[in-house]
Amino acid sequence: MPPVKIPSLVAWLTAGLLAAVAYLNPGPVAGALLLILTLLFLAAYSWRARRTTRHFRTEAQQFANNVYMLQTAEGLAGYGRWCIEIEPRRHLWSTEMCSLVGLAPGTPPTEETLQAIMPEGMGQLETALCAHAKDTAPYCVEFELGAEDHLPRMLRANVRHFFSPEGQCEQVFMVVRDVSKEYALLRDRDEAIAQAERAKKEAETDALTELANRRSVMAELDRAVVRARQDGESLSVIVFDVDHFKHVNDRHGHPAGDRVLGMIGKIAARQARERDVVGRIRGEEFLWIMPSCDVQSALRAAERLRWAIEAGTHSAPVPSVTISAGHAELQDGDAALTLFARADTALYNAKREGRNRVAQAA
Q1: Which residues are tagged catalytic?
Q2: Strand pairing partners for 338?
Q3: CB neighbour burial string for 322-333, b if at least 16 within 10 angstroms, e if fewer
Q4: Helix, coil or strand: residue 164
Q5: Domain harbouring 209, CATH code
Q6: What is the rounded CA–CA span in Å between residue 293 and residue 276?
Q7: Residue 137's CATH number
Q8: pLDDT tens for residues 284-330?
Q9: Which of 74, 105, 125 is where one domain is finished?
Q10: Which residues of 59-96 are buried (b: 16+ CB within 10 A; e: fewer)?
């Protein structure tokens, strides 16, 4: 209601003055004064009524404009409003909410409609609302939208409960949007990352033994030497290969030889520690990188590997084989290739000494 303005106040004061004069001086003059008084009162009341009407009409137009702008903003932003009145149970939602769930504008959110478009989502939503029944702060929930003739989609709602003075929840208000595209982007990103990781692993893995390939294991040897220098730790490497492997291929065929190499890869991977890296260098030759491992520990590990391969291939459905191995520990002045060459020389010393043994580099 607008405040009383000066013209209205003057009309009321004048009417009051004329009423007083008519009361104190009865007669024809008084009648005329009363008529004037009535006319002035009616004019003032009519003027104020028209002004009040214009004021409410303006406010109503502003309210309608605000509602229209809100609905337009909801449509542009992809948000919908959904209100659940608790007692009696009733659902109300905006036109944009109809668009979000794939219904015609103005479709009422009856229980049957909700169950049809959200066969799983209504249960998810009700569970979340019950879990937050006493919450006075806003919170976020997600629920699934989809039926037999709809592709599954995910909706996210910012929710707030409104309570009576007695503390009973009277209304649940939600602002809802479709986050299916966000989930699709996340799935695409995760799939792209997984594909990149698989491609990287394939590029660094020997397909036959599932160990690191030559490029990968030699790159790791470079990094291991740098880390050992920086941290002042020991570093051992074992180079080993299969004894008389050519005879295995000649006698049993290359497929049998491939199975032998695959078995050796599995045994070597089981023998290696978590920090170790084992790779296939070429043919039947392998490299085992052992960070933070001194000479005696490395030699014992090499002996365990030699025994495990001999026993493992003997009991498996592959030709029985043995290995020879050479060990070298990082020394001052060693580069990665120098360290590898020293271990490789020790390997050939083990072969010259009769094979099926471990030799240590000078």
Answers
A1: 284
A2: none
A3: bbbbbbbbbeee
A4: coil
A5: 3.30.70.270
A6: 10
A7: 3.30.450.20
A8: 999 999 999 999 999 999 999 999 999 999 888 889 999 999 999 99
A9: 74
A10: eeeeeeeeeeeeeeebeeeebbbbbbebeeeebebbbb
